[in-house]
Amino acid sequence: MCYCQRITHTQYLLMNSLLMFSVLVALLSGMALGQTQNDDEVTVSIGNAKPFGDTAVEVKFVEVLEDSRCPEGVDCFWAGNARIRIEVNRNHKTSMCFELDTNGPTPFVNFDGFRITFKALDPYPKADKPVDRSAYRATLVISKSK
Question: Has this prediction a pTM greater than 0.85?
Answer without folding.
Answer: no
